[in-house]
Amino acid sequence: MSGPTTNHSPDNGRHESTAPVYRHVRPATMTWSLLLASALVLTGVVLGHAGAGQMARQQAQAELDGASLRLASRFDDIIEEASRVFAELGQALEPRCSDDELLAMRTQVFNARFLRDVGRIEKGVLHCSTALGRLERPYHGSPPDIMIRGGLGLKTDREVLAGEGTRTMVIEDRQFNALVDPGVVTDLAAAMETATLFLSSNSPAEPEWHPFHSSAAPGGNGLSSVRCSDRSGLCVMLHFPKDRLGAWQPQIRMAMAGFGGAAGFALFLVIFIALRQEDTPERRLRRALENDWIHTKYQPIIRLPDHCLIGFEALARWQDDNGDTLPAEEFIALAERTGLIGQVSERMIRTIGEELSPWLRRHPECVIAINVAPAELDDDALIDKLDRELIARGVNAAQVYIEITERTMVENAAAHARIEQLSRRGFKVYADDFGIGYCGLAYLNDMAVHGIKISHLFTAAVATDSPKAALVPRITELAREMGLDVVIEGVETQAQARSLTELEPILVQGWLYSRDIDIKELTRRFEDSLDLPHPD
User: Alpha carbon of 256 to those of 55, 191, 244, 247, 525: distances in Å?
Assistant: First the structure.
């Protein structure tokens, strides 16, 4: 989809208004609806009180058992991966924290599924890691909380030195340690978000439980599910405190109340829906498409250090009949939910073709970047739209950059085939919002991807004292070694620009250089010169 589907950095001017999509609900109608809904819900609570408690416990226990089984299997995979990484690094016999050893460690991290960082230790003291580099002062860590088979030690609930408050588990042997990506663990228990995860060794003695990444202590009333693995020698326990079981009970009570109050609640829904159909978000979006209220803006992409214009990213802007500019993330999500994303996409691509193709023909060295939504990767008409509106108007396919979020690349089964098809046609494909944790460079290397756009979340740390400040240069270096182009978004300060200039030549975009502009401003500023003045 052409337009800002996923990128929320302020450099794209996407927070100009917080005007909500939902409007025009009369206060009296809202009050009456809330009173009626409250009465029905209260009736359901009363009717379902008797049997809700036991049903809630059974449901919670079933969720716990399923989540603990998945977690036990995941920890087996994590420990197996860490053991393999440690073995391969140990066999290399590189000098401690040498350039060759750091390169080998980083290669392992970017090929790993579950590990975020690998460090070199000696007698429990950390000397270097893939994220921190060589430490001027070695870090003396505490001893492992848990010892498991193979001589591996587990340190639970440890703060990540380069993570600013992130807590996770550390696996170590005599020479190396590794940080576990907490997301690959917590995602498996997402349905039990209020449960607490504890770990222990699978030994005959009374287990001593340690929290995975919280300060909670096991015990007390509530529900628990324990799974022990013969593969790794590790036990997993999910504990659901009694005082949190209430979160499950209202769902059961409301379901039971539905048998007695179905007729009344159905009447409420009919009346409420009839009132809301007066001005639904979907109808407002359809009116916007019919009345051409969705416009295209362009944000420059700049090359440092010479401040030469390379091209633009196309951004969707919706200014409604009240004169309010609605946030792009709201109406793009609405378009996807209502199945109107195809119409928004076609409107955007057609507008780009009509407005920008003459300028692109006059400047064949410049490009236009277009965001594509997940639903469009399943649409065979995507390439037809690009051909009809851009290629047929004289725009070279190599001038068109298609930006797809790395999450979409991982989760959308059609992504690989569509990316291959786009690349064969000559379009350039970029992984947008790179770095938010869904895949690594090694994963992208297996796809026909030409480059990455580093997320503004990483750029914000550039030229600061944050340990994350070194991530953008490292990601850029590794991407270039793999033959990938790099664009850095979210550049807002002179200090960031000076720091990123050291990566020259490098492509950037952000408010420091320009906000999004319309086609008239674009033509006026860049018809005769592609050089941007240096920001003050």
Answer: 11, 22, 20, 16, 65
| Rounded Cα distance, 83 and 525, in Å | 57
Query: What are the DSSP calls for 428-473, one per residue?
Result: EEEEEEETSSS--HHHHHTTT--EEEE-HHHHTTTTSSSGGGGHHH
Instruction: Note the pLDDT tens digit of each residue in 177-222.
Output: 999 988 888 777 665 566 788 888 887 777 888 888 766 666 667 7
Pairing label, strands 506-509, 294-304: antiparallel
State the SS3 of 141-189: CCCCCEEEHHHEEEEEEEECCCCCCCEEEEEECCCEEEEECCHHHHHHH
User: Which are the contacts of 155, defined by CB distance < 8 A and separation ≥ 6?
Assistant: 141, 142, 144, 145, 169, 170, 172
Contact 510, 11 (CB under 8 A): yes
Which DSSP string do the residues of 80-94 spell out, in sequence order? HHHHHHHHHHHHH-P
Amino acid at 213: H
- Contacts of range 187-191, beta carbons closer than 8 Å, 24 or more positions apart: 188/67, 188/70, 188/71, 188/74, 189/67, 189/70, 189/71, 189/238, 191/63, 191/67
CA distances for 32 relative to 46, 186, 270, 278, angstroms: 21, 41, 14, 17
Residue 388 has pLDDT above 90, yes or no: yes
Give 359's contacts (C-beta < 8 A, 6+ positions apart).
Answer: 366, 522, 523, 526, 527
Q: Does residue 211 have a cis peptide bond before it, meaning omega lies within 30 degrees of 0?
A: no
Backbone angle region of 6, left / alpha / beta, with phi > 0 → left and psi within -120 to 50 → alpha: alpha
- Asked whether residue 49 carries a pLDDT value surpassing 70, the answer given is no
Number of neighbours of residue 233 by Cβ within 10 angstroms: 18
pLDDT tens readout for residues 258-290 = 654 555 555 556 556 655 565 677 888 888 888
DSSP E strand boundaries for 229-355: 234-241, 294-304, 308-319, 325-326
Backbone angles phi, psi at 133, to 5 degrees: 70, -155
450 φ/ψ angles, rounded to the nearest 5 degrees: -95, -25
- Cis peptide leading into residue 182 (ω within 30°): no
Give the tokens for residue 34. 């809330």
How much is the pTM? Answer: 0.51
Residue for token digits 């030195």? 161
* List of residues 6+ apart from 246 with CB closer than 8 A: none
Amino acid 530: pLDDT: 84
Count of residues making up the chain: 536
Which range has the worst mean pLDDT, 111-125, 444-458, 488-502?
Answer: 444-458
437 φ/ψ angles, rounded to the nearest 5 degrees: 110, 15
d(CA 107, CA 447) in angstroms, rounded, equals: 18
**Beta-carbon-side half-sphere exposure of residue 72 (alpha carbons within 13 Å):** 22
C-alpha 423/C-alpha 448 separation (Å) is 6
Rounded Cα distance, 177 and 163, in Å: 16
CB atoms closer than 10 angstroms to residue 273? 10
- Is-contact 2 371, C-beta < 8 A? yes
Strand partners, 311: 301, 367
